[in-house]
Design brief:
It contains two helices and eleven strands; from the N terminus they run ααβββββββββββ. β4 and β5 form a beta hairpin. The protein is elongated and about 75 Å long.
Length: about 190
C-alpha cells in the first residue's frame, strides 16, 4: 500500500499532472467553449447612406420648407444580389446583400445576423453552391473563395469591403466560416436582383 501511494507522488505523477493540465489548457484554447454563451452585437450603417432624422428647416416666412429631393438611386448604394442565410453547423439566420457603393466599390452586408459565436469565424464570398444540412457544412473551401475578414459580431448588421481586385460576379454564395474547424456555421445563396 505504501509503494502505490509513493509512486503517485514522484516524478511520474508530476509529469502526468502537467500533461493533463497542458492538454486541458490546449483544449480550452482550441474549442473556446465560453464563446457559446457570449454574444457580440455589431450595428453598422450601410456606407454612403445618410440618415436624416432632423425635421425640415423653416422657411423665412415661418412655414416648413419643402423637403429636398432624395438622392437618386443611381448615385447611392445599389443592391446587386441578396439571399437569406440558412443554418449549417449552428443555427444561423439573417440577410446577405452584395452592394455597389456610389464610388464603384463593393461591400457585402449582413443584416439582422443571428448565429452562434465561435473561434476564428470568417466571412467568405465563395463560388460553392449552398446545400442544406450536413452536406453543406464543408463545401465552401473546395472551390474559389475570398475571405472578407473576421466576423465582427455574431449578431447585428455589418459591412465587409470587397478587395478592389475581386470581381463579385464570379461568386454566388456567402458563408460564415469557422476557419479553425473548416466548417460553415451558415450560408446564403446570392440571387441577382
Amino acid at each position: 500500500m505504501g509503494r502505490v501511494r509513493k509512486a503517485w507522488t514522484g516524478p511520474l505523477a508530476i509529469a502526468v499532472l502537467v500533461a493533463v493540465v497542458a492538454g486541458a489548457g490546449f483544449g480550452l484554447y482550441w474549442f473556446q467553449p465560453w464563446k457559446l454563451w457570449q454574444d457580440e452585437t455589431v450595428q453598422e450603417a450601410l456606407p454612403g447612406v445618410v440618415e436624416n432624422s432632423a425635421p425640415p428647416a423653416a422657411a423665412p416666412s415661418g412655414e416648413p420648407s419643402e423637403p429636398s429631393e432624395p438622392p437618386s438611386p443611381a448615385t447611392g448604394p445599389q443592391t446587386l444580389a441578396s439571399g437569406e442565410l440558412i443554418s449549417h453547423e449552428h443555427a444561423t439566420s439573417g440577410t446577405v446583400k452584395l452592394v455597389r457603393l456610389a464610388d464603384g466599390s463593393h461591400v457585402l452586408r449582413l443584416e439582422n445576423l443571428d448565429t452562434s459565436n465561435g473561434p476564428d469565424l470568417r466571412v467568405w464570398l465563395t463560388d460553392a453552391p449552398v446545400k442544406q444540412g450536413q452536406a453543406g457544412w464543408h463545401v465552401f473551401d473546395d472551390g474559389k473563395y475570398v475571405s472578407l475578414g473576421k466576423l465582427k459580431g455574431n449578431k447585428g448588421s455589418q459591412n465587409y469591403a470587397l478587395p478592389p481586385d475581386v470581381d463579385p460576379s464570379g461568386y454566388g454564395s456567402v458563408s460564415i466560416w469557422c476557419d479553425r474547424f473548416d466548417v460553415s456555421f451558415g450560408a446564403a445563396e446570392l440571387a441577382r436582383v
